[in-house]
Each structure stands twice: as structure tokens, then as C-alpha cells.
Write a structure and sequence with these properties.
Length: 480
């Protein structure tokens, strides 16, 4: 298979955020827009890092006046921050526009008119960024609509995850995307790659030879990527019920995080090399065995408005992934993510081999040490290690040294979407997924997709069905 060209910067776009820019956000009334993307735009405005002249057009199938859309975004900021009062709200709001009536090949709704007016306001040399914050099932038709209405040429386009919903739909979508756009125009998001702490996993590994030297099957017994949420899905039942935890989180964010851990040292830490290293790791993922996947649904899920009474959608998924290469052969990568769980935690953990695993007789029964990165907010690095118990009785005890990763002088950590939007403007692909890695991810889950296990019930506020615990044996989940 010939890899699609992946260039760090478009030959046709200058790596600057100075060009007047119109962002069109499809799905602007949705959960992603309210919780993550609109706050990031406002944060960029607060930081003075948007282009000097810009507009943000929210696109949706319903109808809203520009003023109603501004109120809608203000309410989202009041709920999720940054607070409007903490930034240049009035100036920001004046740049917000809404184009209703949807956007399809047959009917572009109000978008062409609103876009033309915004471009006219901003002058001749306007950059247009299309941002698809809509459910993945709508990506293909929207891409076709770009071609029909002549909106592809000279623009940049940002696809949310999941890019596809199966190997087949991924191929269909990507073929259309490659037909309509040049690869240099396309950005495929996985916002976990933009977490500050995700970047810490990479930099901690390569800046510390002691860490780099144990980052392999000789010393690591298990790798765990565990994203637990107390969050419900009531606000976005229709998207969620059609998607489920496995597609929403596992084949997307958790596969990318697992690949971040698993990757070979990249040639350098530049955008192209990082993306290529992750993609290469994904290509070594073994096809998932459906017997090593556990799906769960929290009790009460089907009572949510908009969820069918007989829905079998998974709200939790856990699996064991094997990576067939010299560094990781035989090391299980345990991935788990679910809604309505016990806690909000996002962790990448390397469980190291115990003295017994390494054939040592001294302190053979000592617990395995762990190196664990919390991905929440600014992140933290927690190293749990066995030490002597103080006092005359002696014995061993495990203690944890915790290093907050945002506890240093300098700017505060930025929201992931702040990084992503800036990187789209500058053409830097280090935080974006690569098409070959995505193809490998969909290939790895293809057999599972045709043969999904039964969905098991779990009580809200727990760690999921017991079968998920068993995946970690003979070890156990770090979060428990
Ligand atoms: N929510 C989150 O935390 C995150 C979501 N994502 C991704 O963002 C995308 C959107 O997710 P989210 O915002 O949660 O989903 P929502 O269900 O909230 O949908 C977003 C918006 O898309 C529009 N929409 C729905 N169906 C269609 C359709 N068939 N065609 C065109 N537009 C449609 C709706 O707006 P209207 O009715 O106004 O047209 C809706 O408000 C998904 O791909 C998701 O995976 C990524 C990271 C985080
Ligand atoms: O992509 C998604 O991510 C969020 C979790 O991301 P966070 O940045 O809010 O922690 C998840 O809740 C959502 O279901 C999913 O679509």
C-alpha cells in the first residue's frame, strides 16, 4: 500500500496565522462545540493568538440568527469557561456568525451566502478552514458537498474523530477526501494527541535514558491506557447511541495513546517524524481477538431520552491489544474506557516486571513498580516503587513519588483544542493522526467489528463488568 503523502506544511499555504481566516464549524450547536472547541477559540482570542482578522461561522441544520448564536456561545463559555468576562467577549462575539438550513450537496442552506459575506468583509486573501464537528456518519456527505459547492479549493479541512466507523467506511470516506482535497489541506483530529500530558509521555521517555532503557518487553509487564469518565451521554444521545464506547474512545483516542507509548524513537521530534512513528506502531497492532474485548452498558442507559429501549450500544469497552514487534512482543496493552464509571481519571501506566518475573530470588515477592502518567489537565507523573518499611519489624512497602507536570515556571498548560486550532493555522501535523495509522487501526478491529461480544450490564459508579477486570490478569488495573 502506498502511503498518502504527509507533508509538514502545505506547499500552497504559508505557515502563518496572519492571513485573514474564516472558520466554518459544522455541528456548531453540538456538545463538542460547546464543551471544547468554542472555549478554545475564546481562549485563543484571550491569548491574542487568532489571526488579526477572522470570522467563525457556526453551521447547523436548524435556524438561528447571528445574535442567537452569540448568546448560545456565551452560555457555553459561562458553563465551561473561560468566562466571557475574563476575555474580550464583545470583540469576540462580533466575529461570530451563524448559517442555518444545514449544508448538503443538494442544499447548501445559508452557508454560501454567509461565507461570501464574511470573505468580502475580510478582503481578497482569505483562508477558509472547514471544521467538521458533526457525527462521523455525516463526514462523507459533507465532503461531497464541499466539492459540489466549490468550497474545497484553497481551503483547509479538519475532520473530527472517528474518521470512519469501520474499515469499509474509512476507505470510502478517505477515497472521497483524497478526491476532493489535496492531502496537504487535510487535518484529522484526535484531541488526546494534543493533551499536554500526552506530549509529556513522549518527552519524558526520550529525555531520560533510564526511562527509555526500560521502555520495552524486557522490563515492562503490561501497558495500560485507562480513560474513566463519570460523564453521562444524555446531551448527545443520538450521536452516542450510533457510536458507542468502542468507536468513540478505543479505536480512536486509546489506540492513538497506545501507539504513542509503543512507537519506536522517531527520527526527530518534528511533526512528520512523530506522526510517522505513531503510524508505524499502529501498523504493528495485531488484529483484535473478539474474545479479548469486553463491552458493557450502564444500568439505566436505555431510559435516556433518544436511546431506544432495546439499545445494545456499549457505554464501556475494554480490550487487550498485542503489538507484534521486537520491542513489545508478549506485552499486553490493556485499554479501557467508559461512561458513568467511578471516577474521572485518564492514565497511561507502564507496569514493570517484578523481581520474580525477572528471575531474581532476592525480594522475589516485591510488588511490580509502576510508571504512571495522569493525562488530566496539566498532567502528573507518578512512580510507584517498593522500599523498606521503616521501623524494627522491617518488610517492604510500596510508595509513590508524584511529580505534577504543570508545576513549573512558565505559561499555564493550554487546552488541547487551543493547540489543535493553532496547529491547523500553522500547518504543523505533529498532533494529528496519520492516514496510514488510521487505516491500520480500522484493520486491527475489523474482525472484532464483524463479531462483537455480548454487551454486559454494569452499575453506574463502578469500574464496569467483572469480565473487564479479568482482562488484566494475572495483574490488575492500576485504577481500581
Ligand atoms: N463531545 C465530545 O466530547 C467530543 C466529540 N468529538 C467528536 O465530535 C463530533 C461531534 O460530536 P458531538 O458534538 O458530541 O455530537 P452531537 O451529537 O452533539 O452533534 C453535533 C452536531 O452535529 C449536528 N448533526 C447531527 N447529526 C447530523 C447530521 N446527520 N448531519 C449534519 N449535522 C448533524 C447537530 O447540529 P444541528 O442539529 O444544529 O445540525 C449536532 O448538534 C463527533 O465526530 C465526535 O466523535 C470529539 C471529541 C470530543
Ligand atoms: O472524543 C471524546 O472525548 C471525550 C473525552 O475527552 P475530554 O477532553 O473531554 O476528556 C469523551 O467524553 C467523548 O465521549 C468523546 O467523544
Amino acid at each position: 500500500m502506498t502511503p498518502a503523502p504527509q507533508t509538514a506544511q502545505s506547499p500552497t499555504h504559508s505557515p502563518t496565522s496572519d492571513r485573514p481566516t474564516v472558520f466554518v464549524m459544522y455541528g456548531a450547536t453540538g456538545d463538542l462545540s460547546r464543551r471544547l472547541v468554542s472555549p478554545a477559540f475564546f481562549e485563543l482570542a484571550r491569548l491574542g493568538r487568532l489571526p488579526a482578522q477572522w470570522r467563525l461561522i457556526g453551521s447547523g441544520r436548524g435556524s438561528k440568527s447571528h445574535e442567537e448564536f452569540r448568546d448560545f456561545i456565551r452560555e457555553a463559555l459561562e458553563e465551561f469557561g473561560p468566562q466571557p468576562a475574563d476575555g474580550p467577549w464583545e470583540e469576540f462575539a462580533a466575529n461570530l456568525l451563524f448559517a442555518g438550513g444545514g449544508f448538503t450537496a443538494d442544499d447548501p442552506g445559508e452557508l454560501l451566502d454567509v461565507l461570501a459575506a464574511a470573505k468580502q468583509d475580510l478582503g481578497d486573501d482569505v483562508e477558509v478552514v472547514h471544521y467538521l464537528a458533526i457525527p462521523p456518519g455525516a463526514f462523507l456527505d459533507t465532503t461531497k458537498a464541499f466539492a459540489t459547492h466549490g468550497l474545497a479549493e484553497g481551503s483547509r479541512v479538519v475532520y473530527e474523530k472517528p474518521y470512519g466507523t469501520s474499515l469499509e467506511t474509512f476507505e470510502e470516506l478517505d477515497a472521497e477526501v483524497q478526491r476532493v482535497f489535496d492531502e496537504s489541506q487535510v487535518f484529522r483530529i484526535d484531541h488526546f494527541l494534543a493533551f499536554e500530558a500526552q506530549q509529556d509521555v513522549i518527552h519524558a521517555r526520550f529525555a531520560n535514558p533510564w526511562l527509555a532503557s526500560i521502555w520495552n518487553r524486557e522490563f515492562v509487564a503490561q501497558v495500560q491506557v485507562d480513560i474513566a469518565e463519570t460523564l453521562d451521554v444524555a446531551q448527545r444521545a443520538s450521536f452516542y447511541d450510533a457510536t458507542g464506547a468502542f468507536l468513540d474512545m478505543i479505536v480512536t483516542h486509546l489506540f492513538q495513546m497506545a501507539a504513542t507509548v509503543a512507537m519506536e524513537p522517531p527520527a526527530d521530534l518534528g511533526p512528520g517524524a512523530l506522526q510517522a512513528a505513531r503510524d508505524a506502531a499502529l501498523q504493528d497492532f495485531r488484529e483484535l481477538d473478539p474474545a479479548e474485548v469486553v463491552l458493557g452498558q450502564f444500568d439505566g442507559y436505555t431510559a435516556i431520552d433518544g436511546v431506544p429501549d432495546d439499545s445494545r450500544t456499549d457505554t464501556l469497552a475494554a480490550c487487550r491489544v498485542w503489538i507484534d514487534n521486537d520491542r513489545w512482543r508478549g506485552v499486553p496493552f490493556l485499554l479501557r474506557s467508559g461512561k458513568k464509571m467511578t471516577a474521572d481519571e485518564q492514565r497511561v501506566t507502564l507496569v514493570l516486571k517484578s523481581p520474580a518475573d525477572l528471575g531474581q530470588s532476592l525480594h522475589a515477592d516485591a510488588e511490580p513498580a509502576t510508571i504512571s502518567f495522569s493525562l488530566l489537565e496539566g498532567g502528573a507523573l507518578d512512580v510507584a516503587t517498593t522500599v523498606r518499611k521503616p521501623g524494627v519489624a522491617g518488610g517492604l512497602v510500596q510508595g509513590t513519588a508524584s511529580l505534577p507536570l504543570d508545576g513549573f515556571e512558565g505559561p499555564a498548560p493550554a487546552l488541547p483544542y487551543v493547540h489543535l486550532i493553532e496547529h491547523v493555522l500553522t500547518g504543523d501535523r505533529s498532533l494529528f493522526t496519520g492516514v496510514e495509522g488510521l487505516r491500520a487501526a480500522w484493520t486491527a478491529i475489523d474482525r472484532f467489528s464483524q463479531n462483537r461480544p455480548e454487551v454486559l450490564p454494569y452499575a453506574p459508579g463502578t469500574w464496569g463488568p467483572q469480565a473487564a477486570d479479568a482482562l488484566a490478569e494475572p495483574g490488575q488495573w492500576f485504577l481500581r
